[in-house]
Amino acid sequence: MKAKNRLIYIVAGFLLLELSIYPFKLPLLGTIALVPFFLLLEKREKPFLWPYLIGLLFFGVNLYFIVLVQIKGYEKLALWLGFVLLTAYESLFYGIWGWLYNKFQDTPYALLVAPSLWILVEFARSVTDIGFPWLNLWMTTIGDITMAGLASIIGPYGISWLLVFSSCLVYRFIKTRRWSYFAGYLLLLIAMHAGGKLSVERQLPQANKTVRVAVLQPNVLPNTVYNPEEWGETVDSLNALLDSIRDDSVDIIILSESAFPGFYRLSERVKSYVQDIVKSHRAYMLFGTAEFNPIHRKIYNSAFLVAPDGRIAGLYSKNHLVPFGEHLPFEDKIKFLQRINLGQSNYSPGGSFNPLRFDDVRMGVMICFESMFPEISREEVRLGANLLVVMTNDGWFGRTTGPVLHYEHARFRAIETGRYIVRSAKTGISALIAPDGSIVEELPLFKAGYFIADVPLYSHRTIYTKIGDVVVLLSLLSVAVCWLILRLTRRSG
Q1: Distance (Å, rounded) from C-alpha 90 to C-alpha 60?
Q2: What is the distance between the alpha carbons of residues 54 and 33, in angstroms, rounded to a whole number?
Q3: Of 350, 222, 353, which is closest to residue 296 (Cα–Cα)?
Q4: How do residues 119-133 score in pLDDT, each as one tens digit?
Q5: What is the DSSP letter of 213?
Q6: DSSP strand E in 18-118: where?
Q7: Which ranges in 326-444 belong to alpha helices (H)?
Q8: Average pLDDT value for residue range 397-404
Q9: Which CATH class is domain 209-459?
Q10: Of the chain's two ends, which shows fewer C-beta atoms within 10 Å, N or C?
Q11: Alpha helix (H) residue ranges in 201-334
Q12: Structure confidence by residue, pLDDT tens digits, 446-472
């Protein structure tokens, strides 16, 4: 293949992926996004390199917001290093997929193995301490809420499987000019929309109850080091918002991750302020702050639920921490890593996904990064959550695509679980997301504001929450069987 053609295919692969997500959101392109991958691999030359280069372009563009965090000194250099390494790491999985697929592409099993391998690679991106499933292929469907509705049935990985399969069909049509492949592609699109439409328009069961929530977005920018002015800015903004809802009776007031600086239990100033709020509004309050365990000498990124009488009614501590930002991966297993300081926060994982409870409400809480992982929200629903809450603080990344792409991950969590999601962000985007992924309420980036909503509580389970990521297991099984058959066939031949 000529170098010029390779360059065209690499750029085309990047553009098809990029145009299918925010801000363009052209989901039809996601159904053919891997066609350039297959064209690059058909000569069986450097099967790792070409997909890897597409990954470098795609993740480089969509992770660049990391370096825009407003910090100085050596930590800024660490951000640049982190951006380069993370981009290279995420792209690695594209290369691995190409290398593995190359071993099957001339076999009768290629049409089955290609999407199955892709799913296994996507799943691998989300596991272990360095899991970072940013912009998996299923995210390309968020521009078509009907197609994305399939997530409540087959889960996000099931959608990715179908998208890779659709690219396979189009690629084969291009190479063979057999219209049966193109007809198969069209039938698959129709089936995906029909299945998604059935899911989106399903009759939700009668809500057991509604809870009246107030979400406050103070729009106070975060600081990397302690700033005494932050407390005053936070209180002034929150007081203005609290005055606006004073005449409304709400069940719970929800703030963001890191709503207050410092440690809640150790700050009499913060405790007094929070207790005054819950007593005067006669409402529960959920907010993010740091927690310190004096026995184990550990700190946590936590969410506190405080009751109207001022007592702590619940505590959730973030389990899936941001690698290199909130902790060093594997530091609990490799002791010398605990002595390395790259500017990380050195949080410890919480260890439990149990919902926070008050009255009939069971809140499954996800703190920031955790909303990217479908297994977390699914586990919280399995443990009884009838409402999901995402608390985040994306103010570090300014008006980039980062906060918006992060926000759209939460829309998938609503679809998958059939739950309303309340998203509270310190600088935006705060929102109420319906179980079909549609937006009921929304506060934009960098605008102080609030919304009050009566949120239905559901106890049913979607098919996906019942069966989980069975698509991943089936993909593993199919690849293993195809590999075994191929190996036995070659031996006998």
Answers
A1: 9
A2: 11
A3: 350
A4: 999 999 998 888 899
A5: E
A6: none
A7: 374-382, 401-417
A8: 90
A9: alpha beta
A10: C
A11: 228-244, 268-281
A12: 999 999 999 999 999 999 999 999 999
